[in-house]
Specification:
Radius of gyration: 18 Å
Strand content: 15-25%
Strand order of the largest sheet: 3-2-1-4-6-5-7
Number of strands: 7
Helix content: 40-55%
Oligomer: single chain
Order of helices and strands: EHEHEHEHEHEHHEH
Number of helices: 8
Length: about 240
């Protein structure tokens, strides 16, 4: 098979990052002829970057992309995608809430699809995070039409060629939503598969912070307004061409 780039965004994940990288190396090495593991340290204030540098010294297939300041989840993914060099791109979080070996399930589903995206079955997060996630998915699927069962599930695989056409503007929590909405709008084939989700064992999540949530809603509404205008402009152009 072709090579695969594994992207791991990380923010203050010193308790998880070594195991996450080693797991990614083992799984990608077993499933792909060529692979790379790209860790994006998003302005961590702990030893995350130091640990990854040590791992990269042991294995040249491990690479570190480092942000001097925190740019947000979408910013970390964007940097990881830009650094990816192989034909397939896969990303998951560094908190080890997903089973890396289930990448094999996504690869099997890629035949006939451009993107394969997981959905947590079930989601093993505290109640408030699950409630926020339910509302977020409902809002996105209402504003844009059906987008995904679990928009923000951090277990996605896609062909690198998708990145050449899908341009994502927002760099915060809206990144995954915009990525999927634009991919569907361009006609890319998306397949959804269930994946295992585990409770976080170490480190601290930041997605449920009020400031993060409020910024996400602001970004989403701005994206919806802009996307609606883009669609209307495209429709008017199509009508003129058909006359």
């Amino acid at each position: 098979m072709t090579g695969i780039s594994v992207v791991l965004p990380a923010y203050n994940e010193e308790a998880n990052i070594a195991a996450a990288v080693r797991e990614a190396v083992a799984v990608a090495g077993r499933l792909a002829d060529d692979y790379e593991v790209i860790v994006v340290d998003d302005g961590s204030r702990d030893r995350t970057a130091e640990i990854v540098q040590a791992l990269a010294a042991e294995n040249p297939r491990v690479r570190l992309v480092r942000h001097p300041t925190n740019r947000g989840y979408g910013g970390a993914l964007a940097s990881g995608f830009a650094a990816a060099r192989l034909d397939l791109v896969f990303f998951t979080d560094s908190d080890r809430q997903f089973v890396m070996a289930e990448l094999e399930r996504l690869l099997a589903a890629l035949d006939g699809a451009d993107l394969v995206i997981g959905y947590r079955a079930p989601r093993r997060d505290p109640f408030i995070r699950r409630l926020n996630g339910f509302g977020w998915n409902l809002l996105i699927n209402t504003l844009f039409g059906y987008t995904a069962r679990d928009v923000d599930c951090a277990f996605k695989l896609f062909r690198r060629s998708v990145l050449e056409r899908v341009v994502v503007e927002w760099r915060g929590a809206t990144f995954s939503a915009e990525f999927l909405v634009r991919a569907r709008g361009l006609g890319y084939r998306i397949r959804e598969v269930p994946v295992t989700h585990r409770p976080r064992q170490a480190g601290r999540a930041t997605g449920a912070r009020l400031d993060v949530i409020l910024r996400a809603f602001r970004e989403l509404l701005r994206f919806w307004w802009r996307y609606r205008r883009e669609q209307r402009a495209a429709h008017r152009l199509l009508v003129r061409r058909e006359r």
